[in-house]
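Quick sanity check, FecR family protein:
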Amino acid sequence: MNNEKIWKYINGELPEEEKASVLRWIKEKPERIAEYHRLKRDFSFSGSSDHITDESIARHYDTLLGRIQASGKKINGLFTELLKYAAVVALTFLTAYYIFSHSDQSSKDSSKVLLTQVETMAGQSSKVTLPDGTAVWLNSASSLTYAADFGQHGQREVTLQGEAFFDVTRDTLKPFKVSTSEMVVKVLGTSFNMEAYDGSDVVTTLVEGKVQINSPGGTKLSDLKPGEQITLSLATNKLEIKEVDTRYYASWKDGYIILNNVRLEDIAPKLERFYNVNMVLKNKRVKDIVINGRGLRNMPVDQLMRVLKMTYGLDYKIESSLEEITKITVY
C-alpha cells in the first residue's frame, strides 16, 4: 500500500473509494485495528506544540514506536512507516500554515493580499508567535488569520474563529485588533482570552491591561478592566459584563483544566473540543451535575471519565470506531 494514501487517510483527505481500501487493510488484522486506535488517541491527547522541526518529528515518532514496543507487540515494516507519517500528521496539525491569495476586484490591477492562516484540529492546541512578538495560544478546533505583511503598514490585525489567549506586545503607534464575526477587540498591549466559536456566544476575558470592545462596524461597545469578562449573547444580541477569576478562562494554555461550579452540560462542548469526542448526556441528572476541580489538559479521556465516575457517581460508555470520532455516553 502507498504510504501517501495511509497519511491522507489519517488526515481525512482520501476520496471515498480509496478510503475504503485503506479501511479494509486496517481491518484485515486485529493488531492493525488496535494500533490504529492507539494512533487516534495519540493525535487527540498529544498536548500542545510550539514549532515543527525534524527533531520534534523524530522525537514524536520515537515516542509512538516506544509505546508499541513496550507492549511487546510485533509490528511490520509498513506499520513502522505509518508511524512516521503519524508523527508528522500529529505535529503538523498543531501549527498548520496555509498561504493563499485574495484578489481585489475593485481595482483594475489584480493586487493580491497574502494571508497566513494557523489552524488547530479538535483535541489539539498550539502556540504561535506573530511577527511583532505577540504570543497567541490557539485552543482546539480554532484558526487565526493575518496578513503576511502583518504590522508593516500601521495596523496589527488578526481574525479569530474559535478560542485563543493573546499576550500582546505593546506598541502605542500600532493598535492590535482581533476580529470575529460578532465583535472586534482593540488593544495596545495586554493579555486576554477570547472565545468565538461558530454558533456560540462571544466571550472576552481580560487578564492584564485594557481592551476596547467594538462592533464589526467600528462602533464602540465597552471598555474592559482586568478581571472583567464581556459576553455577547447570540440569542439576545445583548452584552453582559461581570467580574471573574481569570484562572478559569486562561489555564488551558498552560496545560490545565480548572472548573469551578460548572454544570456538566455547560462544560461538555469544551470537553468535546479538548478531546475530539462526542459526548451524549442521557438524562437531566447527569446534565445538572456540578463539576469542581483541576486536571491536566492532556489527561486521557478514559482517565478523566473514571475520575468523574468516582467523584460524582455517574456512569459512562466509550465507543470507538474507525469511521467516526469516539462517542462517550454518560448516564
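Posting the structure with no commentary besides this: The chain has three domains: 3-92, 96-249, 255-330.
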